[in-house]
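lol ok so funny story. i was supposed to be doing the assay writeup but got distracted and ended up predicting the structure for this chain instead. priorities right. anyway since i did it might as well share w the group, maybe its usefull for someone
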Amino acid sequence: MSDPQAALASIMPAWIAPVFVIAVVVNTMANNDMTAYSAGLCMQSIWLLGAAAMV
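and the output, tada:
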């Protein structure tokens, strides 16, 4: 098999490509949202620990 991508394109139905692209975009956005949420919680905990240490 010299070109696996072409072989898969001939086997798979044509409607699967746009569905796959949409799924990748939605998954990427959801992953970024979770990362931002976790980073925000981490920053809050660091600030709270620093504020408690100053008191």
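Residues 31 and 37 are 10 Å apart (CA to CA). Helices lie at 4-11, 16-54.
back to the writeup now i swear
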